[in-house]
Amino acid sequence: MSAEAPALLKDILGPRALETIADAGSAAAARFDRAAFLRAASDGLEALSIMERVRHIADALQPALPGDYADRLEVLRAMAPRLTHGFQAIAVTEYVARHGLGHFDASMKALADLTRFGSAEFAIRPFLAADTPRALAVMTRWTGSGDEHVRRLASEGMRPRLPWAARVPALKADPTLAAPILEALKADPSLYVRKSVANHLNDIAKDRPDWLLARLAAWPQDDARTAWIVRHALRTLIKQGDPGALALIGVGHGAAVRVRDFAIAPATVRLGDRIAISAEILSDSAHNQRLVVDYRVHYARAGGKTAPKVFKLKTFELAGGETAPIAISQTIRDFSTRRHHPGRHEVELIVNGRTMATAAFDLLPG
To answer: In which region does residue 321 sit, left (phi positive, over 0), alpha (psi from -120 to 50) or beta (all else)?
Structure first.
């Protein structure tokens, strides 16, 4: 018997989700037109991707919601707690994005209210694009909220490279515009918020690495929460072996070590097989050394080209004169963001930003 195919992401917003949203609307307002919503939301749904469904459902709410815009916001607020999945709530916040730009202040307040049910990070982008200074001022005030969801929205909604989201021209021109927000949240007590701040800073690293390094160098890391953000914000630069990034986490560029027995097994695999990567790292120093060990796979591509990707392996302290074994395994399988091609795949072992050893495996066709 063949294995059951995995559910598609878009099916999160399938017919059952539409019924849930319709039920929430009917419970929130007696005049909610359930039939009109289901008719509009169901029409053409099957062909749409997940984010297209978000927008489609938001537009389907328009003929169903009663009253003027202020009335409709109150209905949305009453609907949100009755929804059963974050993406259902994201579709509700998207209504504000698509129909509320003419009511800026009321819409921004509604997004802050709704974000705890399903993040409003996508819905806030049109408001940022329409009036960046005005939206930034509101979002900066949100950093003082007692609700971690609102504080997170202040950071996440302004990410320069927020996945799946529309780009904001002002953030593309200057990805550092949210600096006041990031400063305010650099020691936030919520891990949910700190993850967003770190991801936001990592976005900036891809366009303005010098700015990022200078900013983070000025942040005192005696607070464990700030130190956590700094480490995770630097992950792209650390993978690139950037000396400034390594220095900020207390690691020198390069290390007094040797690598022995770097190997990949098996040396020949097919799609779906697992490889094991192993080595020993020997200290050539009498002193302890902090090591960041990564590995870079050069994925084969059509026409003999390759595409490198760096993976985290291990960060640890190596005592003077000691030897440490390292090992990790990885399944060679396709993802929506990465398709494998047959051919030779070179692998580098990287210690503190420097390639210390190389090996390879071959991926067979079929």
So the answer is: left
